């Protein structure tokens, strides 16, 4: 009887808790199928030998995305070779932010010579599933899609050379060593993702 | 003649700058004081930046609210400092838009150290608006662009 009460209480507690939006550190994230700037569809599962992933919700227009553009390119250069590729996703609604159109994504990826996918999340379903809110917003995942880090790239948006804490690099290094990220969650000021109006 | 035109233009620029409100740079503890000091006036705090298009779009709602409701305090907190510590851009914006609301610049770096101290549920994304009844502790945080009527509704929700 006591057991039943506890089970019932647990069910009530679960039902009463607000619907959880997005992943937390320790959750298992989902894979996705999204269109890349080259027109081909990309999934995380396409990276057969990956030891993990650096998934970054990014965009064309946000000044923070611009400030971090070179740092994102550098992250991929450093970690793709070690088995942790960068995968960037733009979820901004082009109706709300015209500079975030697919054509502009193609142009920027070409101009900056992206060696990593820059995917369009047209329905915004992936950004919502992940719980992405800002750009750039990083999710470091293990090989089996366990979330090991959520947040900012580092602690100084304005000046790359004044950074003292490299959150994403530390999380990626830890992943390679089979250790948990030293800092697993951070927040940063940033541009809100431009959601489609309901 | 051309010189004279330039002189006049220069004088105009100077005089418009002189009319602009004095924008103070505040620290986190100054902002926390606004969030917690008990007063009968509802505190409406908008976090914005000159580079943030949806923020710029919703600012007229706060300007209108200022004339519609004189029983509240509105503070527009510029978050430009993180990317650009020079206040000139914010000052030019405030002058150009002729903003009447109180505008301050939050002059802090390393946002991860203080975003939670403003509101634990805030992701740090802009725009964000915080509405606080300091007497009851009731607060509402909106992390998206506001539309006509939203502010009035939020204020009445924390008022009772």
Tell me about this structure.
The complex is a heterodimer of chains A (198) and B (160). Chain A has 198 residues and is an alpha+beta fold. Chain A has 5 helices and 9 strands; from the N terminus they run αβββαβαβαβββαβ. The radius of gyration of chain A is 18 Å and the shape is globular. About 4% of the residues of chain A have low confidence. In chain B, 42% of the residues lie in helices and 21% in strands. Chain B starts with a helix and ends with a helix.
Describe this protein with a few key phrases.
heterodimer; A: 198 residues; alpha+beta; seven-stranded mixed beta sheet; two-stranded antiparallel ribbon; B: 160 residues; alpha/beta; six-stranded mixed beta sheet; 6 helices; 42% helix
Kindly estimate the percentage of residues of chain A that lie in beta strands according to DSSP.
Answer: 15-25%
How is the biggest beta sheet of chain A arranged? 7 strands, mixed
Major β-sheet of chain B, in short? Answer: 6 strands, mixed
Spell out the CATH superfamily of chain A: Glutaredoxin
Q: Distance N terminus to C terminus of chain B?
A: 64 Å
Q: What portion of residues of chain A is helical?
A: 25-40%
CATH architecture of chain A, by name, is 3-Layer(aba) Sandwich
Our count of domains of chain A comes out at 1
Whole-angstrom Rg of chain A: 18 Å
The greatest inter-chain interface is formed by: A-B, 23 and 24 residues
* Annotation, overall tally of beta strands of chain B: 7
Question: Any idea of the CATH topology of chain A?
Answer: Glutaredoxin
Question: Outline of this structure?
Answer:
The complex is a heterodimer of chains A (198) and B (160). Chain A has 198 residues and is an alpha+beta fold.
Write the layout of secondary structure elements.
The complex is a heterodimer of chains A (198) and B (160).
Chain A: H1 2-16, E1 34-36, E2 41-42, E3 52-58, H2 63-80, E4 86-90, H3 102-111, E5 118-120, H4 125-130, E6 134-135, E7 137-142, E8 147-151, H5 167-176, E9 190-192
Parallel strand pairs in A: 3-4, 4-5
Antiparallel strand pairs in A: 1-2, 1-5, 3-7, 6-9, 7-8
Chain B: H1 2-19, E1 24-26, H2 28-36, E2 42-48, H3 53-68, E3 72-78, H4 88-97, E4 102-106, H5 115-118, E5 125-126, E6 128-132, E7 139-142, H6 150-159
Parallel strand pairs in B: 1-4, 2-3, 3-4
Antiparallel strand pairs in B: 2-6, 6-7
């Amino acid at each position: 009887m006591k057991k039943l009460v506890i089970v019932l209480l647990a069910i009530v507690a679960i039902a009463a808790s607000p619907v959880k939006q997005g992943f937390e550190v320790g959750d298992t994230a989902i894979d996705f199928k999204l269109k890349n700037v080259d027109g081909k569809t990309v999934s995380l599962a396409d990276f057969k030998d990956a030891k993990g992933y650096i998934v970054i919700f990014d965009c064309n227009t946000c000044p923070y995305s611009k400030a971090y553009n070179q740092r994102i390119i550098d992250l991929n250069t450093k970690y793709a070779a070690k088995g942790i590729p960068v995968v960037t996703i733009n979820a901004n609604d082009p109706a709300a932010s015209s500079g975030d159109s697919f054509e502009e994504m193609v142009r920027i990826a070409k101009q900056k010579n992206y060696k990593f996918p820059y995917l369009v999340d047209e329905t915004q379903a992936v950004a919502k599933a992940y719980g992405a809110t800002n750009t750039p917003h990083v999710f470091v995942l293990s090989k089996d899609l366990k979330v090991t880090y959520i947040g900012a790239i580092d602690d100084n948006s304005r000046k790359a050379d004044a950074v003292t804490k490299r959150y994403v690099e530390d999380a990626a290094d830890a992943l390679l060593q089979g250790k948990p990220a030293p800092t697993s969650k951070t927040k940063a000021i940033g541009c809100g993702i431009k959601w489609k109006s309901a | 003649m051309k010189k004279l035109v330039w002189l006049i233009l220069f004088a105009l620029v100077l005089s418009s700058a002189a009319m602009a409100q004095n924008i103070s740079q505040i620290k986190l503890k100054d902002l926390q004081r606004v969030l917690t000091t008990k007063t009968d006036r509802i505190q409406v705090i908008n976090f914005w930046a000159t580079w943030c298009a949806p923020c710029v779009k919703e600012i007229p709602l706060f300007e209108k609210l200022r004339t519609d409701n004189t029983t509240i305090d509105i503070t527009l907190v510029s978050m430009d400092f993180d990317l650009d510590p020079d206040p000139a851009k914010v000052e030019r914006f405030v002058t150009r838009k002729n903003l009447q609301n109180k505008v301050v610049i939050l002059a802090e770096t390393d946002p991860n150290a203080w975003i939670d101290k403003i509101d634990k549920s805030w992701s740090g994304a802009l725009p964000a608006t915080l509405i606080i009844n300091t007497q009851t502790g009731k607060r509402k945080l909106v992390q998206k662009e506001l539309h006509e009527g939203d502010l009035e509704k939020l204020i009445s929700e924390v008022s009772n």
